[in-house]
Specification:
GO cellular component, one term: cytosol
Pfam family, one: Peptidase_M24
Number of helices: 5
Strand content: 15-25%
Number of strands: 14
Number of domains: 1
Keywords: Aminopeptidase, Hydrolase, Metal-binding, Protease
CATH architecture: Alpha-Beta Complex
Low-confidence stretches: none
GO molecular function: metal ion binding; metalloaminopeptidase activity
Shape: globular
Helix content: 25-40%
Strand order of the largest sheet: 7-6-8-13-14
Mean pLDDT: 97
GO biological process, one term: proteolysis
Length: about 270
């Protein structure tokens, strides 16, 4: 499939989908606490989607049975909500999306519950910062692998972390997963040129140990092979017609964080 390039009108609809995802994240952050079940978080997300007039792009995707993915500790991505209890000290990763008028948004975050181990907090901080470094590197005129290079270089500079090889970011638009696939590692200066109208979901997934992973018997949940804890952050961003980026799934469009990295966001979607 060819890479889908979006018009400003289409990006405007994707921003609406992105805001629904941002609102889901906000709602979950407000309620998540020790003693909750993971399927209680799924109910919260479903309510936000319904209230917004959007639809879920996760529910029934290749048979996935829930509105969000909830992954805990050594579960890195694609955990299925259920009766599992969230405990003090857990690292919980939430991944979700929404569809508005046929256009998709997709984003993820990890959060520490209660009293968090300092190494777990650093894991999450490094993963989140690497995502923003990747977005900043994916500027107009850059090449696709500049994103993965930036993610890998920053992650490796912060300590010994495993970057998952089998999973990465992706194009997004009228489908949740489109070309191109975006690696979270590799050499800079290769792949398609990043141009206005390109929309990418950038999502590093790292562990405190090995990069090796395995999929559980439910055929969804991805865990670290060595039992080390993982983190997962994701945002959907676009290069707007003015050549500047805009983070569609961030409430402020990525303004504050990208400014700290010397990047000005687009005014096309404000």
């Amino acid at each position: 499939m060819a890479i889908q390039i979006k018009t400003l009108e289409q990006l405007t609809i994707m921003r609406r989908a992105g805001l629904v995802v941002a609102q889901i994240h906000q709602a979950i952050r407000e309620v998540i606490k020790p003693g909750m079940t993971t399927d209680a978080l799924d109910v919260v997300a479903a309510a936000v989607i319904k209230r917004s007039g959007a639809t879920s792009n996760f529910l029934n995707y290749h048979g996935f049975p829930a509105t969000i993915c909830v992954s805990i500790n050594d579960e890195i991505v694609h955990g299925i909500p259920g009766p599992r209890i969230i405990n003090d000290g857990d690292v919980v990763s939430i991944d979700c999306g929404a569809i508005v008028e046929g256009w998709h948004g997709d984003a993820a975050f990890s959060v520490g519950i209660g009293a968090i181990n300092a190494d777990d907090q650093k894991l999450m901080d490094v993963c989140e910062e690497s995502m923003w470094r990747g977005i900043a590197a994916g500027k107009n005129g850059a090449h696709l692998t500049d994103i993965g290079y930036a993610i890998e270089q920053y992650t490796n500079s912060q300590g010994k972390y495993g970057i998952l090889r089998e999973y990465g970011g992706h194009g997004i638009g009228t489908e949740m997963h489109q070309e191109p696939h975006v690696l979270n590692f590799g050499k800079a200066g290769h792949g398609p040129e990043i141009i206005p109208g390109l929309v990418l979901a950038i999502e590093p997934m790292i562990t405190r140990g090995s990069e090796r992973m395995k999929v559980l018997k439910d055929d969804w949940t991805v865990v670290s092979a060595d039992g080390s804890r993982g983190a997962h952050f994701e945002h959907t961003y676009a290069i707007c017609p003015d050549g500047k980026p805009f983070v569609l799934t961030s409430l402020d469009g990525g303004r504050e964080k990208l400014a700290s990295l010397g990047v000005e966001i687009s005014g096309d979607l404000d």
